[in-house]
């Protein structure tokens, strides 16, 4: 699992030194990957200065008849479903930028595990792309392109080379490209990932001060009360009080579900 065999070209320069490369392999249809999201967001907020994140898909892709993929002409009215569509959609969204890919994945997980929508349906994926303000025509065009399928094949190749056999799996690499990656399959407590980062960095790691709440909502489309409390190190009741203040000021919107509450920036 040596990194030299995985990268065809050197990684471009970073605006600041981040000594760790972190690959996170996910399956968009796995409930564990929905549970992973709050942990990964907190890790990004606190320690992103130490690592470069790459989300890779670890989804079984059966031999697929390409005719099942909607073409540009009838795509917006398409009601086709396929088990590979969620993975293809994440890659198509990434073609509009890394952050667009993260936002699409987050919204897709929300649709699947909170709203119980069928994210294997192309029409639902179009709805998600519209909801997060992607260029829908570009999304449709990329969805049916060979480039997206090649991007998926790269992820599958990486999973094979890194011997990743389940999702979610974290694979950490340090600055020494001769060293083996450190693979962590499954989900563990947040402190486990902190300790791994610190061990690989080789010195004490200092968490960043989280941004103000308004900036947090600029980065993440929706956040739960529990997530916000965890990021700011406060109780859920304190987080809810602060959010209710912003609700009264019409800065945020509340989205209740059966067993949790999501918040998002007020839609103007």
Can you walk through the features of this model?
Keywords: Cytoplasm, Isomerase. InterPro entries: Adapter_SpxH, Thioredoxin-like_sf. Adapter protein required for efficient degradation of Spx by ClpXP under non-stress conditions. Interaction with Spx stabilizes Spx and exposes the C-terminus of Spx for recognition and proteolysis by ClpXP. This is ClpXP adapter protein SpxH. Helix content is 44%, strand content 13%. With 268 residues, the protein is an alpha+beta fold. The protein folds into 2 domains: 19-201, Glutaredoxin, CATH 3.40.30; 213-265, Winged helix-like DNA-binding domain superfamily/Winged helix DNA-binding domain (Arc Repressor Mutant, subunit A). α2 (85-94) runs antiparallel to α3. The chain is globular, with a radius of gyration of 19 Å. The N and C termini lie far apart (48 Å).
């Amino acid at each position: 699992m040596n990194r030299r065999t995985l990268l065809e070209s050197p990684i471009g320069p970073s605006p600041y030194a981040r000594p760790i490369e972190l690959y996170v392999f996910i399956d968009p249809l796995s409930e564990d990957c929905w549970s992973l999201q709050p942990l990964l967001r907190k890790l990004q907020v606190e320690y992103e200065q130490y690592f470069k994140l790459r989300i890779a898909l670890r989804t079984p892709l059966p031999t697929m008849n390409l005719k099942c993929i909607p073409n540009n002409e009838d795509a917006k009215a398409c009601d086709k479903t396929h088990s590979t569509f969620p993975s293809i959609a994440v890659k198509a969204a990434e073609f509009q930028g890394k952050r667009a890919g993260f936002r699409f994945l987050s919204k897709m997980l929300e649709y699947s595990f909170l709203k119980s929508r069928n994210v294997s349906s192309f029409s639902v994926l179009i709805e998600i792309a519209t909801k997060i303000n992607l260029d829908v025509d570009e999304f449709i065009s990329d969805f049916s392109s060979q480039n997206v399928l090649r991007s998926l094949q790269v992820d599958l190749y990486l999973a094979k080379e890194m011997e990743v056999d389940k999702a979610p799996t974290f694979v950490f690499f340090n600055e020494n490209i001769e060293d083996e990656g450190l693979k962590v399959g499954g989900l563990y407590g947040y402190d486990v990932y902190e300790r791994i980062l610190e061990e690989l960095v080789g010195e004490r790691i200092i968490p960043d001060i989280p941004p103000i709440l308004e900036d947090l909502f600029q980065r993440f489309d929706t956040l739960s009360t529990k997530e916000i409390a965890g990021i700011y190190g406060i109780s859920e009741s304190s987080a809810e009080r602060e959010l209710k203040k912003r609700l009264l000021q019409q800065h945020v919107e509340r989205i209740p579900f059966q067993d949790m509450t999501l918040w998002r920036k007020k839609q103007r």
